[in-house]
Amino acid sequence: MKSQLEQLKEITTVVADTGDFEEISKFQPQDATTNPSLLLKAAKMPIYRHLVDETLAIVRRKNLSSNEQIMVSMDTLAVRFGQKILAIIPGRVSTEIDARLSFDIHGSVAKAHHLINQYEQVGIGADRVLIKMASTWEGIRAAEKLERDGINCNLTLLFNFSQAAAAANAGAFLISPFVGRILDWYKLHTGKNYDVPSEDPGVQSVTQIYNYFKQKKYRTIVMGASFRNTNQITELAGCDSLTISPALLNKLGNTFSQLEKKLDATNTGEVKHFKLGGEANFRYKLNEDAMATEKLAEGIRSFICDQIKLETWLRSL
User: Fold this and answer.
1) Residue ranges of domains in the chain, CATH in brackets
2) Which of 76, 89, 125, 246 has the fewest CB atoms within 10 Å, i.e. the most exposed one?
3) 290-316 and 36-43 are packed helices; what angle lies between their axes, rounded to 10 degrees?
4) Could you confirm whether 132 is annotated as catalytic?
5) What are the pLDDT digits (tens) for 123-155?
6) pTM to 2 decimals?
7) Which of 2, 9, 62, 132 is catalytic?
């Protein structure tokens, strides 16, 4: 019998959630995603230190101030890692912009164009890169502009149905609704374990979003993210894409029980009606959802923290 990972690849696009090239090669995913936390972890690994040293050497030859050197180094390092990942996978890599731009539409658009320009300078077209940013109102508006400019986007830190609907309405190429972080919040606030996968609030959130998108014929790809266990993954088998950590990819690769397709675009249940509204309604709906409000803010702060940690480390080299 095939492993669950092999079975999953037959019905869902499997994406590696890591910046570790060796792990990506091992599991042969279609795509890969990175974020500041993963980039920090990978950059500090001895096996990839040469990429950091080469990047700093190039940047330091330029006539830049100390702060400018760090800013350029961060962008260059993100693109270097993306370039190496794209040499391994057949699909796309998601490269995240500075989370400090999460509420800056113009800054996000400018940074995205800068990163794509850097990719193009090393021979990689925009069609192989997704610019990743938080699903704030401003992030969604930036993605709307970028999609019109021919730059595809991955809207991340997505916890709420309103975020998903707004992203699809804006024409985002892909969204990353989180599963594990939603479960974390509900376990903390209810004291329940949610041992039955179908009752997992994170799983239910992605299922609801997936079914709605298929009913509305949205082209936006739904990519479940942030998994805590393989049960969450197998309960979402059939989703457009799933981005999975190496540890869970390994577990799926060593499990040989039958995998059932749980999500199906031809069987989405009762049709859901939802009035999106404008900015005021978006912010109201998000504010009404304590989990989404807290996890979005927490996620942005966490990514900023790791961004600063990486910058501080680079300054010390």
Assistant:
1) 4-316 (3.20.20.70)
2) 125
3) 30
4) yes
5) 999 999 999 999 999 999 999 999 999 999 999
6) 0.97
7) 132
